[in-house]
Amino acid sequence: MKRIFKISTAVFLMFGAIYITGCKGKKEAAKVDTKMPEEEVEVKVLCSGPEFFTDKTAFRANSVGESSDQVTSKKKALANARADLASAINTTIKGTIDNYVNSREMNNKEEVEERFEGLTREVINQELTGTKSICEKLTKTKSGTYKTYIAIELSGADLVAKMKEKISSDERLKIDYDYEKFKETFEKEMEKLEKSK
């Protein structure tokens, strides 16, 4: 009996030591040095940061374009930023349409969803030309090339208003369309997008 007690005590002490060591290791891991390695340099990206993130009122995107020609560097930056913006808008609109159609009692949901998506693609393509530049910086590198840093935005309210206009002109969708419900669903998707940043 004493032997079983000694073995049990030894096992208990051994697991206790392992547990304490494990906890101590976690605390030490939390104190990891966050200094930048000496061979690396932090890069500050112009027209970037939290103030240029999408929020619940507007879609935003930023990019950089580089070229030996100043105008081409701007065109590249703008094209890249618009592509990023279009991608974010498409994702949000897709979520809005899915949630809106699923929350409504509609006949032939698949057809309704397809029609919504087709109309929103048209609206997005038209609206991307109306994006507003909120930051633009031009630099020249040591090698003589130009770099354009750009940030653009598109108002969520403007986008929804254009969608309302387009959907209202479609006789088949107008019957099932509830603007206030669609707008409410869109605003929820925008809030999700803002929280994910």
User: How much of the sequence is in beta strands?
Assistant: 5-15%
Radius of gyration computed on alpha carbons: 27 Å
Strand order in space, largest sheet: 1-3-2
| Measured distance between first and last alpha carbons | 62 Å
Biggest β-sheet: count, sense, barrel? 3 strands, antiparallel
**Overall domain count:** 1
Total number of beta strands: 3
Q: What is the H-and-E element order?
A: HEHHEEHHH
The number of helical segments is: 6
Structural class: alpha+beta
Residue windows where pLDDT falls under 50 for at least 5 positions: 1-17
Q: Which percent range fits the helix content?
A: 55-70%
Overall, the morphology is elongated
Instruction: Indicate the mean pLDDT.
Output: 77
Features:
disordered N terminus; 197 residues; 3-stranded antiparallel β-sheet; 60% helix; 3 strands
Description:
- The chain is an alpha+beta fold.
- It has one domain (50-195).
- Helix content is 60%, strand content 15%.
- The protein contains 6 helices and 3 strands.
- It has helices at 2-30, 70-103, 109-128, 156-168, 171-176, 179-195; strands spanning 58-67, 132-140, 146-155.
- Strands 1-3-2 form a 3-stranded antiparallel sheet.
- A hairpin with a 5-residue loop joins strand 2 and strand 3 (146-155).
- Residues 1-17 have low confidence and may be disordered.
